[in-house]
């Protein structure tokens, strides 16, 4: 039976035409990640996945599916940023574990790369989960922080296709019981704490847009090509609306520097309706305000908000670059433990 590769257009809704194909696509993606990490703690709900996989004004997503006859055996996703095309494209390729080593991944990657190049991407990037196994041959990024097992299928595949490992990211988890035990933290003079659940409070939209823009340049990116990714109030609204309309709640803790009226930092956690694992998203403290333990303060306060608002949540998961010592220090002190690894890979095509 021959292999076909076709574009999959995202449906308007799960129950709209194309919804069944999307469900098969989403299940394949969750199954592959579960197979790699040995846990389904990170599995995304269909509703949530659809809201992340559609294109927005600042992020274009195209999807390819490989089929053997009627059976979906692989998928690829190509993500580009219309506001910063020079930052290139992110590619993702997944092949059903039972159908590997038959060239399906190579065929999907070639189609995904061709589409990215056609879209003008000068650099191709991959951010993908890898298994955590100690021992055996290792692969290290040039930063010297973190490593991966050389025999992980994704590692072998990407190296065979000319991608360079640039960054290793730790995926770690904290049980909610540990969050309940965290001691309250003091607020330094001149600062005021703010917390809210749901969309960004109107009065802080512009400040939040500025903090999110800084996130794109201040988070360590190792050798990955990164450009300032501009946010404005409209983009914050679109982002918040997309989260709310996919049965997710964003919990934010922020700290205002009262003398200047500037938001000095923020952190946010996203919780899916009925989900057991909440996702730690961005955390940032502006350079001028670092060194006052505001990062720890923000995370503790948002943890309090999480356990109070969503008592059924069992754990929080977070992603941190291995070279991001300040953030790992905070998370290790809180009790986060590693459950997997993700890596940033890159290939220049122009
Ligand atoms: C990586 C992945 C997409 C490969 O899919 P695939 O259909 O097996 O890919 P191919 O058959 O085209 O394999 C191509 C090459 O990858 C390498 N490779 C993949 N798995 C391997 C393994 N278990 N052992 C040794 N080499 C392996 C080999 O170089 C292989 O060529 P070969 O079979 O001629 O030796 C698949 O393992 C997968 O879905 N992994 C999880 C997601 C992931 O890591 N994606 C990375 C790209 S974003």
Automatic annotation (TrEMBL):
User: Mind telling me which SUPFAM superfamilies this protein's record contains?
Assistant: Acyl-CoA N-acyltransferases (Nat)
Q: Which residues form a coiled coil?
A: none
Q: Fetch the InterPro entries from UniProt.
A: Acyl_CoA_acyltransferase, Bact_Acetyltransf, GNAT_dom
Pfam families from the entry? Acetyltransf_1
GO MF: acyltransferase activity, transferring groups other than amino-acyl groups
- The domain of life is Bacteria
Task: Tell me the ranges covered by the N-acetyltransferase domain, including all copies.
Answer: 3-184
Does the keyword section mention Iron-sulfur? no
Instruction: List keywords of the entry alphabetically.
Output: Acyltransferase, Transferase
Please identify the protein, giving its name as recorded.
Answer: GNAT family N-acetyltransferase
User: Source species, please?
Assistant: Aeromicrobium endophyticum
């Amino acid at each position: 039976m021959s292999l076909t590769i076709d574009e999959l257009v995202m449906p308007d809704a799960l129950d709209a035409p194309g919804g069944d194909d999307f469900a098969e696509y989403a299940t394949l993606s969750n199954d592959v990640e579960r197979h790699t990490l040995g846990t389904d703690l990170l599995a995304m709900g269909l509703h949530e996945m659809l809201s992340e996989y559609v294109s927005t004004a600042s992020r274009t997503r195209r999807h390819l599916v490989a089929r053997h006859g009627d059976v979906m055996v692989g998928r690829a996703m190509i993500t580009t940023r219309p506001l910063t095309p020079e930052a290139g494209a992110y590619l993702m390729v997944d092949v059903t574990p039972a159908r590997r080593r038959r060239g399906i991944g190579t065929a999907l990657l070639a189609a995904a790369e061709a589409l990215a190049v056609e879209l003008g991407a000068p650099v191709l990037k991959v951010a993908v989960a890898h298994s955590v196994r100690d021992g055996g041959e290792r692969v290290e990024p040039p930063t010297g922080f973190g490593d991966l097992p050389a025999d992980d299928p994704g590692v072998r595949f990407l190296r065979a296709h000319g991608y360079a490992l640039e960054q290793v990211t730790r995926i770690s988890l904290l049980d909610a019981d540990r969050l309940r035990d965290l001691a309250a933290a003091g607020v330094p003079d001149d600062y005021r704490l703010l917390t809210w659940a749901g969309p960004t409070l109107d009065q802080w939209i512009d400040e939040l847009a500025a903090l999110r823009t800084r996130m794109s340049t201040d988070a360590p990116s190792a050798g990955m090509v990164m450009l300032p990714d501009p946010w404005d109030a409209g983009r914050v609204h679109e982002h918040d609306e997309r989260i709310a309309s996919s049965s997710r709640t964003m919990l934010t803790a922020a700290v205002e520097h009262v003398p200047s009226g500037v938001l000095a930092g923020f952190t946010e956690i996203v919780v899916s309706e009925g989900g057991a694992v909440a996702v730690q998203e961005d955390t940032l403290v502006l350079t001028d305000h670092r060194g006052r333990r505001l990062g720890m303060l923000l995370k503790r306060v948002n943890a309090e908000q999480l356990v109070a608002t969503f008592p059924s949540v069992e754990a929080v998961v977070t992603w941190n670059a291995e070279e991001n010592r300040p953030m790992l220090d905070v998370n290790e002190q809180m009790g986060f433990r590693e459950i997997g690894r993700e890596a940033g890979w890159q290939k220049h095509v122009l």
